[in-house]
Amino acid sequence: MDEEEANRSKSFLDFGEKPSFFPKPSENKPSLPPLTTRWLLRKLRSDIWNNLNELNRKKDMVCLVLSYPPFNSRNNETHRGWILDVLEITHKVRESFHKLKKEEYVSELSSEIDSLFHHSIHELEAFIPVEITEEMPRRSWFPWDTKPRSAILDLCVDDFMIRQILQCIQIPGIRRIMISEATDETFLCRLKKLPPVRQMFDIVIHINVIPCLELDYIEDRIIEELGFSKSSGGKADEFLRTHNFLILLHYFFPSNINLLDLGNGWWNSDKTQKIALTGIKVNPKVSASTIISDFDVPADLEIRREDHLLLWNLFCRNVGEVVHSLSIQTLAVDVWRQCCGHFLATVLIARALKDVKDVSIWQHASRAIGFLSTTSHSTEDRILLNALAFVLGQLGSAANKCLKYCASYLEMEGTHNVNLLERWMKEDLIGTLDEGEEIVQWLVNAVLLESFQNGESIKMPDEVRKGLVKFYEAEMNPILLVELDGRGLMEAPKSEAWEEASEMYLMSNRISKLPDNPNCPLLCALFLQGNLHLRVIPHLFSNLVQLRKFILRSCELLKELPAEIGDLCHLEVLDLEETEITKLPITVGKLTNSTSLKVSFYLPANGNRKNNPSNRIIPQNVISRLIQLEELSIGVNPEDERWNATIKDILRELFCLNRLHFLKLQLLEVFPLKDLRNLSWMHLKFIVGNYLKRIISRMPHESAIKFEEEESCLKYVNGVGIPTEIKEVFQHATAFFLNCHLTATSLM
């Protein structure tokens, strides 16, 4: 590698010293022939564009990293100022090249570009390996063999992209945003409906644009969408200049069109005005700027879907080869998902699980990171505190005491290792220097401490210190778990046990009755599954103000859910599978924070199955109100005619659930599958046909478990032929079960 290449390969975080390719022209420089001068100027411009594209790519990566918690909550004015400087130099270069400025001016621009490469983000250096920081500016840098086929992963990436968009539209200089590889139209629909978007903009329009069209045509389509005619372009321009607007363009193919040239007469610096488009899935080996033009930058900011796999990449690299294990991979995705894109929490959890093959430890990590505290902490703080609780639980007593000392007394700038070890010994935290050195290494490996000055000194990253301070404060108010599962209890605990409990584990007992009105203001999770004698849920919901998880699965005698269930405004998970519930109360529609709803309906003994609204098993518009829903499972008895009155509305309401990634339904007929074609990207589990569970299943138990673990399952039961709809769903299924079918000879 020559010197020039070595300079270019320096870490992304400190950007390095850019080589000075373009020295300022000397006053005594001899004149060159015109042809040579033109060639040198062309070469100069080409090199400047290459550097400018690289600088903008790094700017995009800085915006991406700063969109993740905890970095998105800190004061980022220094970084924002640098971002605006990059946008300004980009504008200058475009303007100078379009106006064919002289060589001297172009050389000055080169010097300005070089100076911007000095920007750094030192706060990330402890969390991102050097090899990743060097790969970040390149187009394709992810280990695709570690990316499982998972709709959950895709949904999380969508969330990360939307979070970045919401943050970046607050930067005044970012007006035009290209969203690469987000080809699903529901992405922009979801963005358009977000309350922060509605609050920020007077006008929000969403337009489908046919690929490969001219810029003028796209502007005409926008003008028409605003209600103006093509001939009244001046009025439309004036209208846009006086309003805060967000224009969302879908399926825009940027072959010969630069987004920076769109709507040049619409902008007003006193208004909040943005244009965002979703681009095609670009070839990983070709940059977006190359597709648009030989020498141009496509937008003020490019958000690439692929880039937001950064956290998955970090997670996999920190966990190690064990992430490839079939027994671990599903759990790995679940743990990563529950970190909700929290940068520090993801790295901490991954380091704690490095090379761990024990499935039970992974399951414990999943439960720990998803724990729902009753405290007033924000979601981001809760996730970090949960991650720290898990990590510290893996450390020994001595290491925990040393870490607590560092959080309280270690200087912000750090100290020499020897000095720290002596202080630990003075406080009787360690017995020997060797023990102390071992603990230091553990804490560095866990990213709780950071080594610097060639390993001679130690410090604690700022974000770790802030998290630990909050953790130790929360430790003063411990969480009380009541764990009485599988004890054969005939009665629920007395009222006193409910008063301070945060979680109640009462599953797999013989409880038939719950306390009538227990005082449980802190209870956030109540697990009652497998209580086969439980028949009635008393009116206790007025006291469950913090309840977030309510599990009643396999309470086989439970027949009714009280209407007061709607009072649980914080409820996120409700599981009613394998009960004798006959219908849902309309008040379930008030559970707007719900992320998971699972229910199976029992056929009423009175045979009241007539197709009328009062006998619907799910009232109309209940499902569509649960806009946070990520998982939905509905099981029915195939002889229940009320399902026919309900299913059509359920299918219509599903398309209001933009966050849904898991859907399990029983369809008595084939035709509803036509309406579910657009849901092929999510986890789907369908039973099609008249299917009743057998007391003794023909499918081996192990095979049944493996079948249910698949991402997309299709059971086709008691059918006739293989309809087209079944064949289409079959293309997306990872598991297929054909049962009681006498005429099928081929699936083709």
Question: What is the topology?
Answer:
Layout (H helix, E strand, L loop, with lengths): L2 H6 L25 H32 L11 H22 L4 H14 L13 H6 L15 H18 L7 E5 L4 H9 L1 H6 L2 E6 L6 H11 L7 H9 L3 E6 L22 E6 L9 H5 L8 E4 L5 H10 L6 H13 L4 H10 L6 H11 L9 H16 L2 H13 L5 E2 H10 L6 H13 L4 E3 L4 E3 L2 H14 L5 E3 L11 H5 L3 E3 L19 E3 L21 E3 L21 E4 L19 E5 L21 H4 L5 E5 L6 H13 L7 E6 L15 E6 L12 H9 L3 E5 L6 H7 L4 E5 L9
Parallel strand pairs: 1-4, 1-5, 2-3, 3-4, 9-10, 10-11, 11-12, 12-13, 13-14, 14-15, 15-16, 16-17, 17-18, 18-19
Antiparallel strand pairs: 6-8, 7-8
Helix pairs in contact: 2-3, 2-4, 3-4, 12-14, 13-15, 14-16, 15-16, 16-20, 17-19, 17-20, 18-19
**Number of E strands:** 19
Count of runs of 4 or more consecutive helical residues: 25
Structural class: alpha/beta
Which whole number gives the mean pLDDT?
A: 79
Proportion of helical residues: 25-40%
Low-confidence stretches: 1-32, 139-145, 281-295, 608-613
Question: What quaternary form is this?
Answer: single chain
Largest sheet entry: 11 strands, parallel
Indicate the proportion of strand residues.
5-15%
Q: What would you call the shape?
A: globular
> Main sheet: which strands, in order across?
9-10-11-12-13-14-15-16-17-18-19
* Cα radius of gyration in angstroms: 30 Å
* Gap from first CA to last CA: 55 Å
Molecular structure report:
With 748 residues, this protein is of the alpha/beta class. The chain is built from 25 helices and 19 strands. α12 (310-319) packs parallel to α14 and α14 runs parallel beside α16. The model is unreliable at 1-32, 139-145, 281-295 and 608-613 (pLDDT under 50).
